[in-house]
Specification:
This protein has 196 residues and is of the alpha+beta class. Helices cover 26% and strands 31% of the residues. The strands form three sheets. Strands 1, 2, 3 and 4 form a four-stranded mixed β-sheet that branches. It has a three-stranded antiparallel β-sheet with strand order 7-8-9, with no helix packed on it. The radius of gyration is 21 Å and the shape is globular. The protein starts with 11 loop residues before the first strand and ends in a 9-residue tail after the last helix.
Length: 196
């Protein structure tokens, strides 16, 4: 991504996100793994196996002028003229009038979700408004946190669930990001008398 700036035809500041693959939950984990990798050889191998792409979602500045007060449709038109799609960068596309069908398709592909935006919406930095509504794919279940496993940059929560007979059964673990202060808080909690 070192030369990504060459894929915009003018000086600008863009808003977007890095993705690996199709941005599925598994691909998101690969991206986090790439970002956290500290060893040069491992990082080079991961970048070849799982290349990143910068997906441009909006534009904030163009030639030192703030464009966030332009309506979304005008900013999207700017993006169409500025951003040249390549293997390392692309601009998102809009889907009009078929948003519900598109959201179903995204969920069927096990992707993160979609964002519905008003055509006349402005870009509000650091604020959430009802002009942009995110529809994400959620999977829900109730778990008991049975413990944690500390790691370098994060920790893993050990999860369990009660089965039909009332026994607590191990269901897996989930990674969480936390700092040393948060780990200290967890370590000072009462310890379990029995284990699942």
């Amino acid at each position: 991504l070192a030369n990504i700036h060459t894929q915009a035809s003018e000086r600008c500041i863009l808003d977007g996100e890095l993705v690996v693959g199709a941005a599925s939950p598994q691909d998101t984990r690969l991206l986090k793994r790439r970002i956290r990798t500290r060893q040069r050889n491992a990082w080079n191998n991961l970048s070849k196996q799982h290349p990143c792409m910068f997906v441009v979602q909006d534009i904030l500045y163009l030639d030192n002028s703030l464009v966030t007060q332009l309506p979304l449709t005008a900013r999207q038109e700017l993006l169409r003229t500025l951003v040249h799609d390549s293997e390392h960068m692309c601009a998102v596309r809009s889907v009009e009038y078929r948003g519900v069908d598109f959201n179903r398709l995204v969920q069927a592909q096990d992707l993160h979700g979609v964002i519905a935006k008003r055509k006349d919406s402005l870009y509000h930095m650091g604020k959430k408004t009802m002009d942009w509504v995110e529809f994400t794919r959620w999977q829900e279940a109730d778990f008991v946190i049975c413990g944690y496993i500390p790691n370098d940059d994060n920790a893993y929560l050990v999860l369990g669930q009660y089965n039909d007979s009332g026994s607590l059964v191990y269901k897996g673990r989930v990674a969480i990001e936390c700092n040393n202060v948060e780990i200290d808080i967890v370590e000072n909690q009462p310890h379990a008398v029995s284990h699942p």
